[in-house]
Amino acid sequence: MAVNTGMPLTERVAAVVADLPKDRSQLLPTLWRLADHFGCLSPSLLAAVSEVMHIPYAEIYGVASFYALLPWDPGQPVIVRVCTDVMCSLKNSSELPTVLKDHEGVVVKESPCLGQCDLGPAALVGSRVVRNATPGNLAAEIGEMRHG
Amino acid sequence: MGEVRRLLPQADRRSVAVSWDRVVERGFDKAYQRVLDMGSEAAIAEVTASGIMGRGGAAFPTGRKWDSVRSSPGTAKYVVMNADESELGTFKDRALLEQDPMGPLIGLLIAAHCVGARQAYCYIRGEYREVETALSQSIDILRKKGWVGGETVDVEVRRGAGAYIAGEETALFNSIEGKRPEPRVKPPFPTVKGLFGAPTLIQNVETLANIAVLFAHDVAWFRQYGTPATPGTKLVAISGHVNRPGVFEVPFGVPLQEIIDADDLAGGIAGTGHLQAVLLGGAAGTFLSSAEVAEVPLDYGPLAKHGASIGSGAVMVFDDSVDLAWVVTKLAHFFADESCGQCVPCRIGTRRVLEILRDGNTWQRESDLRELGLAMRDASICGLGQTAPMALLSMLDRPYLRRVEMKGDEHGE
Ligand SMILES: Cc1cc2nc3c(=O)[nH]c(=O)nc-3n(C[C@H](O)[C@H](O)[C@H](O)COP(=O)(O)O)c2cc1C
Ligand code: SF4
Ligand code: FES
């Protein structure tokens, strides 16, 4: 996780992406790397990217804000994406977000089809796929994310 | 006839999926060597003769596409494996990459060799992290063998980040280039001006797997299954009210009813036990009534007579307890959310469709919906806007699928 070493943000960002080419086509890999390292993206992080990669801030924001998976919720919460698309809804997945609301430090989002419709209801806990999701196995996965 | 396993490995394989042994066991090493020996032109002629068509939805003849990229002027060329797979009800590329990642990768290397590309990308949706890891490990194995990197072709895995539209080929190029994944106006087509403005071959995962098994055998073997017009096998992803949801490989031309009923395929209708309709091809697919399902085979020609296509291979099965109005309202939601907003017919049209469905007087607004659908089809930049109202219109075309009341969102939620 992000440890504040007292270094200015721009230098920390530069260090985290040191091995990635400073090329526009590396913008999305760069954003993924920073999201994984810092837990979430923020305007100040994007400003640092802008300096490091020499790309205008507005362009970076335009790209970063387009994608649903890039995290913006500060405080390192566990993000759970429950598929509430057609096939999972038939298996009552739309009830799962309500059940999960009681977990502290968990951000619950509804997601379109996760490509697991044969094993629905499906969910993503962090980046892990949970098939045949129930309140029980989701809670277990959330616990594992927190402590493992 | 039931299940066939050619793209999917036989269940009794000894090798593990991510291994060099798998390459050898499947004959993919010989396949690659055969292509190197015969030369690009002969190999492309073989792809054309096999009759392989794209499995990503549009069913464009693959050999023609390769010819076009190969003959386009330009020193830098690219090949791309499209593993973005974000269409509703579609999970066959995931299953294929889980069970046999080496096949599509070898197909990608063959494609790069034939069109003269030195750089390849695998674009995989960000929700498939486990599959992405297997794919990266598979590439490393090929790299160690000297088949990737150096003087051959380099392969880079690109992770998407949750945007359905990024699966559209030109939006995908923009995503790789570090731009917003918004589709480009066509023409120019990717074969002439694609990734980084260079001639680019982009193929679906399953298409590339077909290439690998073709060259591991020959055209005659390849055409043993399927129909003369549509040779080969297709992966179908079956979900909903069936006893055995999952991914199955079947020959083109197999009756739809058999896919649903056969014991070694979907195993029959679950739920209430009464089939109401199948949504074939994804969110922009076509509803087929139970009567249509009973008579139509899985092939483009016969399906076209019902206004349907195979699309991504999604077969979503609904029993008679499901309110299809609820389904089409959910689809409308999806398209309104996923429209990139770049062009007016799609940005406004997807919203209007949703509003009409939510108001619940869909049948009274039928002619408005049809007009809107036509405008979107004719004036949208990309396939999303062009096909977004397809499923809805296919339901309007089938009065026996209509429920007495359509309440849109209030229903079933
Ligand atoms: C909105 C939209 C989303 C698409 N998503 C995918 C996808 O996830 N995977 C895919 O292979 N093709 C997808 N396509 C089709 C691609 O644009 C392209 O036709 C395909 O990758 C070509 O490969 P093929 O000839 O092997 O089918 C999509 C098209 C549209 C309009
Ligand atoms: S049709 Fe829709 S998704 Fe496609 S470019 Fe236009 S607004 Fe974007
Ligand atoms: S509808 Fe939920 S995974 Fe496809």
Query: What's the count of strands of chain B?
Result: 9
Write out the distinct hetero groups bound to the structure: flavin mononucleotide, iron/sulfur cluster, FE2/S2 (inorganic) cluster
Tell me the strand percentage band of chain A: 5-15%
The rough form of chain B would be described as globular
Sequence stretches where pLDDT stays below 50 over 5 or more residues of chain B: 404-413
Provide the structure class of chain A: alpha+beta
Average pLDDT confidence of chain B is: 95
The top level CATH class name of the largest domain in chain A: Alpha Beta
CATH H-tier superfamily of the largest domain in chain A: Glutaredoxin
Helix/strand order of chain A, N-terminal first: HHHHEHHEEEH
The oligomerization state is heterodimer
The tally of strands of chain A reads 4
How helix-rich are the residues of chain A, as a percent range?
A: 40-55%
In round numbers, the mean pLDDT of chain A is: 93
Features:
heterodimer, A: 148 residues, alpha+beta, Glutaredoxin, 2 domains, four-stranded mixed beta sheet, elongated, B: 413 residues, alpha/beta, Ubiquitin-like (UB roll), 3 domains, four-stranded parallel beta sheet, 18 helices, binds flavin mononucleotide, binds iron/sulfur cluster
Write the layout of secondary structure elements.
The complex is a heterodimer of chains A (148) and B (413).
Chain A: H1 9-16, H2 27-38, H3 43-53, H4 57-64, E1 78-83, H5 86-89, H6 96-100, E2 106-111, E3 123-125, E4 128-130, H7 135-147
Parallel strand pairs in A: 1-2
Antiparallel strand pairs in A: 1-3, 3-4
Helix pairs in contact in A: 1-3
Chain B: H1 20-25, H2 28-38, H3 40-50, H4 62-71, E1 78-83, H5 92-99, H6 102-115, E2 119-124, H7 129-144, E3 154-159, H8 169-176, E4 200-204, H9 205-216, H10 219-222, E5 233-240, E6 246-251, H11 256-261, E7 275-280, E8 286-289, H12 290-295, H13 300-304, E9 314-319, H14 324-338, H15 344-359, H16 366-379, H17 383-387, H18 390-396
Parallel strand pairs in B: 1-2, 1-4, 2-3, 5-9
Antiparallel strand pairs in B: 5-6, 7-8, 7-9
The structure holds flavin mononucleotide, iron/sulfur cluster and FE2/S2 (inorganic) cluster.
The site of FE2/S2 (inorganic) cluster has 12 residues of chain A, from α5.
